[in-house]
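FIELD: query
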Amino acid sequence: MSSEESSSSSEEDVPLAALKSGKPKDSSSSGKNATSSRNQRRRSATNVVSSYKEESEEEEFEFQDDEDEDDKPIASLKKKKTNEKITPVKKAKTKTKPSKAATNDTPKKKTKNSKTTKKSVSETKVSSSASTIATVASELYSKSTKGKLISEFLCRWWYAYTWPDPSTFDTVPPNCDTLDGFPGVFVVTSGDEIGKIIDKRDPSTCPCFSNMVRKTSDELKGLLLKAIENQTSILIQHEGKGTLVEKDLDALKKWATKVNTKKADKEAEQVLRAANLKLK
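FIELD: result
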């Protein structure tokens, strides 16, 4: 049994290449080859183990370094980063002082005296009064009773009489049409003068200031009272009694009835004489 076992073990130690070629080798050479192959295997195994140990040691070293950094406080790491930042260098600004010549050229403010301001105010008053042109209408309207009679009547003249008189323009001129809203006024619609305005109204009876100022205060008072009465009656017909307009008309009627017409005419003459104005 021992010889068989030794032969089987020797056969197992023989390489496959030798068996394939069919050339049996000696047991001594085969034993040497087996031992050499075992030694090579052991060396390669030891090399693999040593390399694995070196890699594991390097990983442990790196892991320790990472742990050391993790154990450090965050404030110390921030300080390192701030220390590493480069602070920019600021350039110093140079202030340029103005030269003496420039300071001397600047004009000095002049202080106004109270006397000069008073003179300027008085001059403006004189110029403003001189710029306003005084007329007969402006003087009578603002300074006389007759002027108030005229203004109040012209606000409601159509309640006192009809103007223009329809009898003055019974027939329409040839090649003309009536202008709506303006009785007595016509427009040429054919011929060589198309668009021309023809006014047939009597200007001497026109309800305007130039005609009313030639009337006496007594005439103006009568026209005004007539206009107030007609306006009040028409107002009551449309809106009834007790309106604010009716109260205003009643107050105006009381004032007009109390007017002294002779005194009003003398007052108007004095106002025009003081302003060096005359009726044309």
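FIELD: remark
The longest strand covers residues 185-188.
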